[in-house]
Structure formats: C-alpha cells, structure tokens
Amino acid sequence: MFAERGFNGASVREICKMADASSTMIHHYFGSKEGLYNAIIEEFTSTTFDVPLRLIDKPPRTQEEFILRLEMFISETFRALSAQAPVFRIIAREARQYVGTSKFHDGFSNYLSAAQNAGFVSADLKIELVTGLVLDRLGGQIMYASKMQDDRPNVLNDEAYAKEWLNANTTVLIHGLGGRP
Q1: Does 117 reside within a domain?
Q2: What is the largest CA-CA distance in the chain?
Q3: Is residue 9 part of a domain?
Q4: CA separation (Å) from 1 to 22, 24, 34, 173?
Q5: N or C, which terminus of the chain has less Cβ within 10 Å?
Q6: Is the pLDDT of residue 18 over 70?
Q7: Is residue 131 part of a domain?
Q8: Which pLDDT does position 37 carry in this prediction?
Q9: 92-144 pLDDT, tens digit each
Q10: DSSP one-letter string for the chain
Q11: Residue 157 forms part of a structural domain
Q12: What is the pLDDT averaged over residues 147-175?
C-alpha cells in the first residue's frame, strides 16, 4: 500500500483490510502508521544491507581480494534490493531522509578508502561519488523493472536476464568500459 500510494495515500484502514488485521493490532505493535512505516524500513535496512556490508567490513589485503569482495558486494546488494523491491519502491517514492543509505554509503566508502590507501584504486577516485553511483545504478534498475507493464524479461522476472545484467554492470562498475585488464 505504501509502495502504491505513498505514506500519505495509504490509510490504516486500507492497510488493515489488505493484511486482514485490525487497526488495534497496528497500534498495539507499531503505535501508529508512522511506527509501521518505520518498522518496515528498519527491517529493509537490516535485510538489505547487513550481509553485503559484512563482505567489505575489513580492508582488502590484495588487489585480487579487493575486486572479488567488491564483485560479491555489488552482487549481494543487487540480490537483496531485488528481493525487497516493493519496500525499495516505498523508500524511493517517499524520498525521505533514509538512514539505511547512510549505513550503505559509510561502509562502502570505508572499503573504497582502504583500497585507495593500499593503492588498489586510483588516488583521484572521488569515493563519495562512486558509492552513490553504485546504489543509484542498482536501485534504478529495480525501479525500472518494477514499473514494467509487459512480460519482457527484466531483473525481477527472469533470473538469467538478471544475472546477465548484473555481470555486465559489475564489469563496467569495477573495470570500466575497457573490461578486465
């Protein structure tokens, strides 16, 4: 309901009807519509970002380790966003300040800074721009696929297409348009 109509457009009555629950249950467990919304977003944050961020929580020791962990991080972030596409649509639609993206950016920035300090990435790399680029690219594809009205293959309805899309984008994100060295 939040994804379709936004926070203000979704009523507690409609949410309860859709969930086959009473409004007293919403108020008992969440306190209010805002509490329910916040619980959904908090669950999204831990479900979506905790595993990928654990992959990059320590500085890389080698160039190969840097690339491997970065590839796994991008892949896991994409898979988590795909699995949580309806909630991601809520966040994108509402455009509120979202703490989870700060967690993502901080963890990713720390990893890239450590790699930069070790000489695994260009000293000229603007890390704060790259972290946003990766989340924007992955999230943008989830949003695009969520809005598709036809049966064309996309990252949400076709696993082979999703894998191909992710591999192509990961290669460009990590190795540039020139591909692997």
Answers
A1: yes
A2: 60
A3: no
A4: 16, 18, 13, 34
A5: C
A6: yes
A7: yes
A8: 85
A9: 777 655 555 788 889 999 999 999 999 999 999 899 888 888 888 998 899 88
A10: -HHHHHHHH--HHHHHHHHT--HHHHHHHHSSHHHHHHHHHHHHHHHHHHHHHHHTSS--SSHHHHHHHHHHHHHHHHHHHHHTHHHHHHHHHH----HHHHHHHHHHHHHHHHHHHTTSS-TT--HHHHHHHHHHHHHHHHHHHHH--S----TTT-HHHHHHHHHHHHHHHHH-TT---
A11: yes
A12: 90
Question: At residue 87, does pLDDT exceed 60?
Answer: yes
Q: Which residues contact 113 (CB under 8 A, 6 or more apart)?
A: 127
pLDDT band at residue 86 under the 50/70/90 scheme: confident
Question: Given the structure tokens 């309805």, which residue do they identify?
Answer: 157
Q: Contact 16/26 with Cβ under 8 angstroms? A: yes
Confidence (pLDDT) at 141: 92
Q: How far apart are the first and last CA of the chain?
A: 47
Dihedrals phi, psi of 148, to nearest 5 degrees = -65, 135
Domain boundaries, position 142: 50-175
